[in-house]
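FAQ: What does the model actually see?

It sees only this:
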Amino acid sequence: MKVTKKIVALVLCLSMLLSAAALALTSAAQPEVIPLVYINGYGSGINQYDENGRSLGRVDDVLNTEDITAFLNDNTTVFMKAFATQDWTEFCDNLVAFMLSEYEYARLDENGDPRYNTRAEQIHDEAYARKFTGTNIYIFNYDWRLDPTENMDELSAYVEAVLKVSGSSVYAMLGRCEGAAIALTYYETYKDPRMVELIFYASAAKGASPIGEAFSGNLKTDSDSIERYIYQTEELHDLSYPVTDNFIFTYDSLVKILRIANNVYGLDLACWAVNNVYQQIWKSITPEALRGSYASFPGFWAMCEDKYYEDAKAAIFEGVEEEYAGFITKIDNYHYNIMNKAEDILLDAAENGVTVNNIVKYGKQLFPVVENSAAQSDGVCTVENASFGAYSVDIGKTFDSNYINNAVRTGKVKYISPDICIDASTALFPDNTWFIKNMMHAEFPNTVNDFAFYLAQNPQANVNTDARYPQYMFYQATKERNEKNVLVLVEDSLLPYDSTEQKNDIDDLSDTYNNSFFRKIKPVFYVFYKLFEITLKVLTPRARS
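And it is asked to produce this:
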């Protein structure tokens, strides 16, 4: 009996030892979950605070739709008078006053510092970081108005809090839109050896196209850009406005009108009229209105493309250079020491063992008022800027046969997109840059966040690692309007891109409408349109402001 008990005890002891060993081996084999510090883009809430630190409420930092409607209603007569006489002085004065009023609390002072005790509403401490424990994606909101360098102390403290609550010894960092500029600045400032990965997502670190054009006064629209924009704007697709009891104005109605207007150069003439007036009066609106709003934000200057930067400074600060000397010094420091050295900074990161990954969106045109609205983009950031150099052709076009043949000869054809418009081999990190088609800049669904978290957990992954995430993907989404008539996401997914099966609205426009008979013969009448335009230019009085 004693022998039996000893045998049983020995077996139990061995079992416990083996279980403990197995558990130890399992724990050793289980990889450390790498926390992802996720830096948002423009739009984090800005609050005003009293002297005791209590919030007085959120400060409006975007144009209020109701206020815009009220302004237009109040100035209808003023606009019509200006249109008839081409004297835009009163309208310009009213518009500038409106912009200054709208941004009274949000805008920064002449040194780029907050006014009225306003700041980002989030406090980034351990308690805030602990909110995300379990997800291992830690959201960092910040005062996007400020110069990126001015957010470094808070971000550094937040990284320490994330490491403490997650129990990890390393971390990955993702910068989204303006957040990419923050992440880039963070690496250059600290070169933290605990950072194992730096991910860019819809990056504006090399610029967001509408900003440079707007700040420098280079806005210009054209008929094709307006048409494409209508096609890609999902919110318009279920347009239904009752005009009379027997006629409802729908999206199809809008498209048909645009088609006819564009085919007969009517839309071109409308665009010419707008461009002609803007070019003559922009100095009466742009500098003062923007100094009192968006151009007061060094964070926006951090997204001003280099090719527009000096012209933008000259336009915005002409005549007030001394007053804004501190502001100009601040934005110059970031532009020339961070943005213009972005590629060198990232190559240095890679040499120091940091994996640099990039998620780029495309298949959409830019705002229909910018210089090259047809550039492949997500509506805000071009493929070239977001990918740090990838070459692409305009929407509706493809690489010619010579380009493709050369890619075949050099073994780089694998980098060409399925729709033959992007060459990933020309990106800064060809094997670590993913392109997602059919997603607007402002769309940040969880399916892409899941992909980003996958990258954070697999620092050695590249475009060839996982069949779920090839270099080119297509975003497929089902959206419906809720009871408040707001378009909401119902279901979505990231799929390997098959250009024969997956099309977006812009593809449909290019494949069908642009190949229609009337669109093909439109250029035949171009000379007549130009003659008519010149005649109008001679007859139309010069705009004054």
